[in-house]
Design a protein that fits this description.
Length: about 240
């Protein structure tokens, strides 16, 4: 069973803990720990696509390989989501600028200040850009999924750009890709909302952060299996045809 596969390994607690600690470390050290996690997930993906098709937790070893190939997988996974992420970032900056300006103005004058008409216009445009960016990120993230699986199968970053090849594979198992992506995206959004609510309080801030890291690692493992299995099924259908 996909959702229970991590717990079948006799050392699953330690393996899950290592991944969770790396995700936790990424809150302090940007990006670098995430490449190791991505490399670990790549091992799961490649075993399913290129190996016996069985989901299993690999060992945490050959850290140089994990980092190098995890970086490649991260490139592949973000490529088609980059336009949306760029708009989302610009929108966030545009929203933050007038809000921070109002806050600093209030501190300087010791009285409550309102956002100027020009600032409100910037904020509104930022909100629109953020909305568009969010939609494009979700759409781009979806197409990045089969592209990343194709990169894992070919073991070449350039394979991400072989749209015709991975499109055929995705199309044959589009239902599995859509359902898997919807499940992972929805679960991640819910997890982020719960964590944001809990971290507001000092009491639950640290426990919520730790639980978020553990849950995120579990989601990464499940996502790897769901998408790799969908890709393998689509690949086998293409070969049969």
């Amino acid at each position: 069973m996909t959702f229970g596969f991590p717990f079948k390994n006799p050392h699953w607690q330690m393996k899950l803990a290592i991944g969770s600690l790396l995700l936790l470390a990424s809150l302090v050290i940007p990006l670098i720990p995430l490449f190791f996690v991505a490399g670990y997930c790549l091992r799961i993906i490649q075993r399913i696509i290129l190996g016996d098709g069985q989901a299993a937790l690999p060992e945490w070893d050959d850290w140089e390989w994990l980092f190098k190939h995890g970086f490649k997988l991260s490139e592949a996974g973000l490529l088609y989501a980059l336009p949306g992420l760029l708009l989302l970032t610009i929108g966030f900056v545009m929203i933050s600028f007038p809000l921070y300006g109002m806050g600093f103005a209030s501190l300087a004058s010791a009285t409550h200040q309102t956002i100027s008409p020009a600032g409100m216009a910037i904020l509104t445009k930022g909100a629109v850009l953020s909305g568009i960016g969010s939609v494009l990120t979700l759409i781009g993230g979806f197409f990045s999924t089969p592209a990343a699986m194709h990169m894992a199968a070919q073991n070449r970053v350039k394979a991400v750009l072989q749209i015709r090849e991975w499109w055929v594979i995705m199309k044959r198992e589009s239902g599995k890709f859509i359902c898997g992506y919807a499940l992972i995206a929805t679960t991640t959004i819910i997890l982020l909302i719960i964590t944001a609510i809990l971290t507001v309080t000092l009491v639950f801030c640290l426990p919520a952060t730790i639980l978020f890291s553990i849950a995120s690692m579990y989601i990464c493992l499940i996502a790897s299996v769901l998408f790799a299995s969908a890709y393998r099924a689509g690949l086998n259908k293409r070969i049969e045809k």
